[in-house]
Amino acid sequence: MSGTVERFFEHLSARDWASLSGVLAPEVERVGPFGDRVSGRDRYLAMLEEAVPAVYRNDVHLVTYAADRRAAFARLTEHLGYPDQTLHLEEAYAFELDAGGLVRRIEVFWQTPQYKPTAGSS
After folding, report:
1. Separation between Cα atoms, residue 38 and residue 53, nearest integer Å
2. Is domain 4-117 classified as CATH 3.10.450.50?
């Protein structure tokens, strides 16, 4: 059975906001790579729905849980497809989970993106 973090990325990659909601605590806080913060499940999901393009997926390379399963780390490549370019971001996520196994806090870290022009663009 996959854990909370694996389900988080499965639902995020599918852009399945209703299912993603099920792994997030109501008070979830997301801290982005620039120190930007979003607090609350509804606000976080609204931000994702607006920011995540239709052509999107994650290749999760590693998920490691703390012994008590209250914290986890994930390393992945995020693929974002836009009309004029495709971004491939090497990222790391740090998760805090509540006693029920829901995501309570997410911190996102990423390296400089690699730009690849989409076919037909200049």
Report:
1. 19
2. yes
